[in-house]
UniProtKB/TrEMBL annotation:
Record key words, sorted: Disulfide bond, Hydrolase, Protease, Serine protease, Signal
Taxonomic placement: Eukaryota, Metazoa, Ecdysozoa, Arthropoda, Hexapoda
Organism the protein comes from: Culex tarsalis (Encephalitis mosquito)
InterPro entries linked to this entry: Peptidase_S1 (IPR050430), Peptidase_S1_PA (IPR009003), Peptidase_S1_PA_chymotrypsin (IPR043504), Trypsin_dom (IPR001254)
GO biological process: proteolysis
Signal peptide boundaries: 1-33
Keyword Transcription regulation: no
Name by which UniProt lists this protein: Putative trypsin-like serine protease
Family of the protein in this entry: Belongs to the peptidase S1 family. CLIP subfamily.
Domain of life: Eukaryota
Amino acid sequence: MHILIQDRQCPSSVSKKMLPFFVLSLLPLTVHCSVLTPPRNARIVGGVNVLQNDFPFAVSIHLVSRELSSCGSGYICTGTLISSWAVLTSARCVRNGSGVRVPEELKLLVGTKSRTNCSGAVELPVEEIRMHEGANLAVLRLKWAVTGVETAVLNEYQQVEGKQCLLVGWGANVTQSGPVEWLQEAYVRIVAQEKCSDGMICAKGEREHAGACYGDLGAPLLCDGSVAGVLGVDSKECGGQVSVFIGVRANYEWIRTQLSASSIVRVCNVLIILIFIKHVIS
């Protein structure tokens, strides 16, 4: 397990004494200290760099098999940490042909806005992939609970036409370009479209040529600061077009049922409590 310690200045060395006793007793830890500065020229279509402390729940999803050459080379999708043990994304991100990928094929990173600075991120091990085939959604359940990371709130309300929302992702900044280095945000507005019936949400960039692009698949649509939708189809055209999101409202109950702790998480929590009690008594 990797622990990220970020500040304006990194100490020359980081001691594990900084971490709680019961965490050290349970899991092998690698501590990383990293100072990250957004690159100046990174842009998605009509988007801007987010600040390091913004959107702490943003998760970059990678294929392990493609990460062999360099960190970040295996990036495929964006996800959202919606509880301490669950990441929400598009089902297309975890499909492998007609089947579903196994958890070991995926590498999830949180805690950094840089797509390629893996040393400054916390890796989230996936225990189980749960699919909602009818809605093209997937929830990636984690092996253990993540602590110290703010999770996103689900938006269960109807999104009205004209409402301003945010699209957040690592998608390309121009047509036929690869994913960007730094996480981007772009303002979009809800629009009425016939193809957005049956629980879908359509949104279009406020600025000309602004919007989703290649690599934004699985990215969250944030309305009133909470997740109202998930980008379900990778954009064939970049910027200016209407993007189609899978609505959270229409799938709220299914998503909520996926958030209970996994068996491994429950066992770990019990062990943590027992070790902590033993330490206090002794």
